[in-house]
């Protein structure tokens, strides 16, 4: 019998701490290796901490609500037999393995911030931000050779660049500090409810401040006649639901149309990088999914390569995961443009805040029946507003107008005759 | 090019020097008719006669003393200690006389003697037949200590030692005598004393060592290469005075240094190498300087298991090298 420590695992490359939202086990509980023992909330995702050992929980060191640094102790577990497992895990892992999946091995980052003189010297000479470097040495230590390889590869994570960026946002964004520490602390009166700002809420707040202070937003809207699309979808939806087991939503068609138009207007599928604009090859569409008081933007990867059905399925999967708090880091990464389904709660017009560092966000509003004058008479048509917020550093009205026109054209020409959901 | 063992290379060097310069002569216990207990002087008695290959009494102080006197009078003696362990009675002669005479006489006198002695364990020899003694002499200015790691170096360095104008202690690893064989040129070549030699180029870790341990390190490096670990190996060849430039260069090359000696760890030659590295290479170091050496107990146990415990071996070197590479 020996008592082992379970520590806060690395839940993502950039994640440094996590908040224990709830314990799934209590003192005295018997757990198997890989069983979930706690739910942890980070500013990126909610995740479960798997047990590194089979044994009996002897002490919960961290309390619910505590924010614990990665690698810090959260509980003790009594393990039968010797402590072979832990030493095995340390020594047998000389090969480079994908970090994310080897939860157990990658969590030993005890040497990550122990820098040798050689490493410090090289970091200074080449202006390397060591926080952004992965170490291949024991306990995650950054070795001299890691830096030599990095310098040769020419992808040096520069300290001054990130500092510059930081100071830039800081100068733009004095209100940013208000997010965590308001200058004039509002007081609470009797009956008021205090909701602590933590985890995802904190991240949302910071991202919004960053987006609105750093990105000069401009806004435009077009009106689209989607009568044919509505007819088509009405005709297909019941059979689709029966065959596929999930609903065929309007939103999937809009995402499809946007992906198609982005292929023709790569200017909108881009990001601001200081002295240059990077136009992305992949079209990965972030979609906004809300859950009580939390907002997630999971990503439909390579939306341009998917059918309407494929997109509809991704939307259902991501939304389900978001509601259950099961979104992974991978689900959230790599978005290049955001499509926001504001129509789902009845909005007919809204101005989106751009999802930093993307170039634009498109809001799909409610589809409403309206009398429209066409072909010399009034007709009841299904109309929808598309609202686009754009980063005016990257984009101007003309290209965005053309883009919206193209989206409009695609949508208005979607009909049973020329569009397949498969 | 003939293949020679380490000891044949030693014999060959003495033969060539005795042929080249008639001032060169050999003295020691059983070096004459018997040709030495290890056969290092085999054939020299027959070739050069009893005047130049002299059997001495069992008195190491006298062997050193006679040699030193002859050297000061212009001869080129090669004195053999049957085992390095037996050198202790001659320490006063070597340190107080041989190493000091040039300084003490204001450069009027010198002492070009070579003292050969087999050192090292792994031969089931126990105390008196297995110890490393270089550290005893490695802080005596005026002395030079040479410890070759292979037959080629043994020949070139011994010839350099014999021709050197100052006293040289020449320690040969007795286990290497018949273990190491390689092609050795028959022509007259000399390897400069005081120069270390890169025996293998690499960029993950640096191993600095000398004597038989060089061979261990080379074996281990070969294995580690398959695991993707690249080893840089520096053979000191001369352990006093040290080739500081080469040590610094080798240490800076990888920033991860393992020092290997068969001698007891504390106060060994490697302690000095470590000090040189820390004085000069701080900002290139990527790990603490590591030493692999014998434990700090009297060498060498007689029981086979205990001898194995004491001795540095290819496996131990390999483990230490891997450990450092993973740091």
From TrEMBL, chain A:
It comes from Aquisalibacillus elongatus. The keyword Acyltransferase applies. Keywords: Acyltransferase, Lipoyl, Transferase. This is Dihydrolipoamide acetyltransferase component of pyruvate dehydrogenase complex. Signal peptide: none annotated. Residues 82-114, 147-191 are annotated as: Disordered. Residues 82-95 have a biased composition (Low complexity). The keyword Acyltransferase applies. GO terms for molecular function: acetyltransferase activity; lipoic acid binding. Its cofactor is (R)-lipoate. It is an enzyme of class 2 (transferase). Residues 3-78 form the Lipoyl-binding domain. Residues 169-179 have a biased composition (Polar residues). Belongs to the 2-oxoacid dehydrogenase family. Residues 114-151 form the Peripheral subunit-binding (PSBD) domain. Residues 96-111 have a biased composition (Basic and acidic residues). Its EC number is 2.3.1.-. GO terms for cellular component: cytoplasm. InterPro entries: 2-oxoA_DH_lipoyl-BS, 2-oxoacid_DH_actylTfrase, 2-oxoacid_DH_E2_comp, Biotin_lipoyl, CAT-like_dom_sf, E3-bd_dom_sf, PSBD, Single_hybrid_motif.
UniProtKB/TrEMBL annotation, chain B:
Gene3D superfamilies: 3.40.50.920, 3.40.50.970. The keyword RNA-binding does not apply. This is Branched-chain alpha-keto acid dehydrogenase E1 component. The keyword Oxidoreductase applies. Its cofactor is thiamine diphosphate. GO terms for molecular function: oxidoreductase activity. Residues 4-179 form the Transketolase-like pyrimidine-binding domain. The lineage of its organism: Bacteria, Bacillati, Bacillota, Bacilli, Bacillales. InterPro entries: THDP-binding (IPR029061), Transketo_C/PFOR_II (IPR009014), Transketolase-like_Pyr-bd (IPR005475), Transketolase_C (IPR033248).
